[in-house]
Amino acid sequence: MWETIINAAGQTFYMVFWSTLLSVIIGFVPAVILTLTANDGLRPNKVVYEILSFIVNVFRSFPFIILLIIIIPFTRFVAGKSIGTTAAIVPLTVSAIPYIARIFETSLRETDKGVIEAAKSFGASDFQIIFRVYIKESIPRMLNGVVLLIISLIGYSAMAGTVGGGGLGDIAIRYGYQRYNTEYLVICSLILIVFVQLIQMLGNHLYKRLS
Amino acid sequence: MIELIHVKKEFDNLEVLSDISITINDHEIYGIIGQSGAGKSTLLRCINGLVSYDSGEIRVGGELVDIKDKKKLSLLQKRMGMIFQNFNLLNRLDVYDNVALPMKFWGIDTKSPEAIKKIKNLIELVGLSDKMHSLPRELSGGQKQRVAIARALVLDPEILLCDEATSALDPSITREILSLLQKINKEMGITIIVVTHQMEVVKQICERVSFLKDGRVLAEGKPEELFIKPIKEVKQFLQEESGHLPSDGVNIQLFFTDESSDEPVITKMARDLNIDYSICWGKLEDFRSNVFGSLVINVKNEDQDNICRYLDDKKVLWEVL
Ligand SMILES: Nc1ncnc2c1ncn2[C@@H]1O[C@H](COP(=O)(O)OP(=O)(O)OP(=O)(O)O)[C@@H](O)[C@H]1O
Ligand SMILES: [Mg+2]
User: Fold this and answer.
1) Is A92 strand, coil or helix?
2) A142 to chain B nearest CA, in Å?
3) Sheet of B63-64: strands edge to edge?
4) Taking CB atoms and an 8 Å cutoff, what residues of chain B touch A117?
5) pLDDT in tens, A58-91
6) Is the per-residue pLDDT at B304 higher than 90?
7) For position B261, what pLDDT does the model report?
8) Which of A114, B17, B289, B314 is deepest in the core (most CB within 10 A)?
């Protein structure tokens, strides 16, 4: 039993780690474009902002379980197969990208307008303002967003069991719920709770240190 | 020299600056005063190229401020440091890194011995050597503004633009910051433009001042000229009431400026002319350590001519109210 569970914990960690990393890197790009083109941004552009914003909203409004299924062709294209732990990273990442885009956009746009104006007044370029002011000032807020993302990805990774993703959630459902092995159910849930708690605590600690 | 020639600016059909012409000389401390919404900040931001203007010309040291020519504009901005009402420091950088930031924008190596020395010297100039590695949230308002001043000086500007730099500070800290600005002006020869709605600021440091209302310059000159004998709009701005003056007899207001404020004119006149009058209202004010003032006296109708002739003789400015 323990081997199964430790194995599953490893799978959960693997899925959550990679989908977080990839979605943060990829989601960063639309977040910066949204920040730049917003009406209070450095290069206001209503058309670009509205189109991008619409796309982000569309992807965010898909229930994860449906997204999981409709992007199966895409998953197969990217991961080479549509089933398995590695393949599950694809839908997890796809669902996390718009979330990160929005969270990072909000974090960046909370940067004090006065500080941006000060940077402009010293002749800073837009590029410098993005990196040295917006991002620099927003790191603690962005970090908070990533913590929330990780926690919800732990939840979603359980659903990824549906496509053979494995992980703690999968074990809890298959062994615990479907085969009435309450022990599995309890232990998997406890590990997930501890996971979430640890990440939240680490996040809070980092937030305090960084801000 | 900073020249504004017929500058106009609208925000969505609201005329914020209408036909502003001002010339500011090198090494002077120039004030722009007016009520909230008068367009003061907009004017300053036009000079710095943070916002565009619709027509007219703004020239800094002969160079046209043109927001479309980004390269040239940023070179001009380098020559103009700016400080703000809310200090606008980066919360996550310590004092040292905040001061160093503009250098980073200009690709100056902040690790070089010269750069380190310069940054430390500026922090010392503003009196914060012991706070070198404090974060802004650990500083008081006055200290934050000192950091902002050091930051504004790090690129060796010729001009320092101050937008309500002391409005968030209490009176004694305001005086300290103003002395610091004065010191920077004297020792480094930096031209300073202060935008403010506080009379105290103008009185304490400005050599010349413009009074702005509804986007127009209604009066310009030395602060003592503007405020000792104010025009109607300035009087409204100062909310100055000469109180209830007597309705019989004649009320005469005297203005004491440079030359006349030393002599005891009032008592001397009573003795010389051998007449009596009552003093109804008065004020004395400090302008850059010179005292100027004004006084209202109530005289009998028959003494008016005598008194006016006497005052002209003594070169005291007067006005019958
Ligand atoms: N970006 C903007 N868009 C639209 N209107 C603006 C903008 N900035 C300023 N205004 C308007 O321009 C007018 C002048 O504003 P400005 O900030 O220059 O006044 P101010 O004299 O600095 O006032 P305060 O003492 O309150 O700072 C105000 O009516 C203001 O609402
Ligand atoms: Mg203002």
Assistant:
1) helix
2) 14
3) B14-24, B2-11, B55-60, B63-64
4) 50, 84, 88
5) 998 988 888 888 998 999 998 888 888 889 999 9
6) no
7) 55
8) B17
For B7, the 3-state DSSP assignment is: strand
Q: Which residues in chain A are contacts of B84 at CB distance < 8 A?
A: 114, 117-118
CA distance B308 to A27: 80
Q: Where are the alpha helices (DSSP H) in chain A?
A: 2-37, 46-61, 64-70, 72-79, 85-109, 113-121, 126-128, 136-159, 168-171, 182-210
At B63, is the secondary structure helix, strand, or coil? strand
- The average pLDDT across B6-17 equals 93
Residue B89 touches partner A, C-beta closer than 8 Å: yes
Per-residue confidence at B81, pLDDT binned at 50, 70, 90? very high
How distant, in Å, are the alpha carbons of A14, A73, B31 from that of B157?
A: 54, 60, 18
Q: How large is the ipTM? A: 0.86
Give residues with Cβ within 8 angstroms of B234, minimum separation 6: B211, B218, B219, B226, B227
pLDDT at position B258: 67
* Structure-token pair, residue B94: 């310590």
Pairing assessment for the beta strands B208-213 and B55-60 based on DSSP bridges: unpaired
pLDDT tens digits, B233-279: 887 887 766 667 888 888 888 888 766 556 778 888 888 888 888 88
Rounded CA-CA distance B87/A121 in Å is 13
- Residue A131 pairs in a beta bridge with none
Domains of chain A, start order? 2-210 (1.10.3720.10)
Q: Please give the class, per CATH, of domain B250-320.
A: alpha beta
Place domain B2-232 in its CATH homologous superfamily.
P-loop containing nucleotide triphosphate hydrolases (3.40.50.300)
Taking the Cβ of residue B75 and every Cβ of chain A, the question of whether any pair is shorter than 8 Å is answered with: yes
Residue B169: how many other CB atoms lie within 10 Å: 20
A122 residue type, one letter: F
Q: Look up residue A126 and give its amino acid.
A: D
Using one digit for the tens of pLDDT, what is the confidence trace for B151-200? 999 999 999 999 999 999 999 999 999 999 999 999 999 999 999 998 88
B196 by Cβ neighbours in 10 Å (0-12 / 13-18 / 19+) ranks as buried
